[in-house]
Amino acid sequence: MNNGSMNPKWIKPAGLLSLLLVPALLLSACGNAGTEAAANGQKVQAVTTNETVDQLYTQAKQEGKVVVYSTSGRANDAAETFMKKYPGVKVEVSKVKSDEMMDKVTNEQDAGQFNPDVIITKEVSGAVGKEMVEQGRYLKYLPDDIAPKVDEPYRTKAPGYANYAEFRTIFYNTDYYKQTPVTNWWDLTTPEFKNKVYVADPLSSPAFMDLFTTMVIHSDDMAAAYKQKFGKDIQLNGTENAGYEFIRQLFANGLTVLKGSDDVLDAIGKTASGAVGIAVSGDVSKVEENGWDVKPIYDIQPKTSVADSGYLYIANKAPHQAAGKLFIRWMMGEQDGKGEGLAAFNEVGSWVPRSDVKTKNPVGFEQLNLWDYDADTLYMTSPKVRDFWIQQK
Fold first, then answer.
1. How is residue 8 annotated by DSSP?
2. What are the backbone angles phi and psi of residue 193, rounded to the nearest 5°?
3. Distance of CA 369 to the CA centre of its chain
4. Nearest 5 degrees, angle CA 351-CA 354-CA 359?
5. Which of 55, 152, 192, 222 could be 242's S-S partner, Cβ–Cβ 3.0 to 4.6 Å?
6. How far apart are the first and last CA of the chain?
7. How many CA atoms lie within 13 A of 72 on its CB side?
């Protein structure tokens, strides 16, 4: 579920803020848009949400198909069961990385081509919210009968509904360690972990960079965790705050940067190793298949991580909007949360933010010790953190 390389276009907000001043040309073009909702100050266009399943299916059969742009292969699994449940409606899925999807949809819509109906995407350091949702290119859809069961922030405080959430956390080798070796992020800067920390490259994965950027944003939390660990106030060494200082000390302690999350788990999990790695929580589902003797840590001070969410949107001027809504409902698990379309998303290492859906994980979503995803601040801060990261290398 790695989003792949980060397109530089989406990490230079200073050069793109003019987009925010564009008149509401796209918003007025949203003939399918309903009410305008606000989420953390963001302008969020939403489609109507009160149709019944029967009403949607009647219209969807007339439309004949639904076109999906998705960052996740899970959409294909949901599509198979959907087409059995709703014969007469074909699902066409194109797998596209989040940043490339932004380019693709923007170019298509600006050319007057409205191709996808459903967008399944991860965030790109706040750019999806700022440049796609606020511009009315992606529209929020959360059916009225499902909304009361959705956990925050995805019910009212997020730009869209996330069908699953995962995050970046520390994994350790269970053959080497008989108990959790890390309880505080600052543990990784101590002599015990000199040259023993691995991470997937944040320069090619927005979600990994979001973790470190969030530490910078919440530098007060990082400073408090430092004092909790070492019993004294943090002393900055030419850095702006405790978040930057953590990154600096991590590199100074011999951080090893690898290509992706799988590479990290390979490095620490194939043989008994005292090394630890920062990887994707969802990779727990691959442990047995890959022969990794690893386990994730779900509670780290000051916070374990920041959520990396898989959002579901209706595309602006979706040509098969009823079919798109029906397919999103299917992936959500329908009104009771038991629909078969949710199965592909409710996995170990991923959390479905619905109060009526039982997780396969040892802790529930509401129990996770996570920072809130602050899209606006991430959007403005990520380029600077990225530059700082490059300087450390």
1. G
2. -110, 25
3. 16
4. 40
5. 222
6. 25
7. 27
